[in-house]
Amino acid sequence: MDGHQFLKKVKTLYPGTTRLILSGYANEQEILDSLIDGSSNLYLFKPWDSEDIKKKIAQIFEARQIFRNQILLDLANGLENLSLVTGIYNAVCQLIDHDADASAIARIIETDPAVTAAVLRIVNSAFYNVKTGSVAQAITYLGLPVVKSIVLSCSLYKSANIKVPPFSIARLTNYATMTNFFMTQIYSELLQKQVPDALATAGLLHNLGLVICLHYFPEIYKRVVEERLQQPEKSLLEFEKETIGVTHAELGGYLLNWWGLPYPIVECALFYHEPLHNAVMDKIAVSVVHVASYYARKTVTHSMVDALDIRVFPLLNITQRDCEKLLQVPQR
Known about the structure:
mainly alpha, Hypothetical protein af1432, two-stranded parallel ribbon, 19 helices, 62% helix
């Protein structure tokens, strides 16, 4: 077996093991594939810097420590048979695991109009610059990991029952979609880069933990919302920590990691409120999602918006004004 096959086997047999690649081939497709399908958490280039490797390993262990929070583990174990993720998502995952061709996966997706529309909307967006009405062709362009993420996102938003004002499925769906769109805009127009394949759906999934909390713990979350509205100077995460014991970001990151999503997506979900956290390895990616999420939330609803960390703008080498102009939000 090659290195990619080896890592996939390790992931299957020992899912709790952190898997890193140290390689001298920056463009090797095998390395990129392993990151996209979650069989590798991180890759580092040769020649390496010993201090940098030690720092990255320390960051990984710091993030893993968050996932060992007993309250988080108890909550996640209670959601083990997650009723929100059933049917079409499980069917698509089984087909992917059995190396089914695109047409077979397309037939499953086409049984759900909402998922079909989401796949075609993303492949026909300016980011991919593809014009097609064929789901099978869309799968070929997007790649299976991206399609899997889109189906997961749709399954969650379709199945969730949310009755905690000011949140609603319509607003949360619009917010996630807009965050993903803003993320691609910032990358392409301001950073002059293409969004890395492993991050293609980070905006869609970054807020997954909030959807889970609102669906499964509505009465508890109503208290969180009431307290947050009474003390707007404190962040949503602070009230979640005090009331639930964990934050929606921690729960979302844990579940995405458990489901085997690419680690860059896991990291964005886990730290999008805290892009400069010590444990963040890709601060550029998480900072972009932080900015995209902030302005998407302000566009969809002006309530329950946590603060924007303006320190990310020098890090990204862009200005807040340029960002607001690009995203067409009101100037400060």
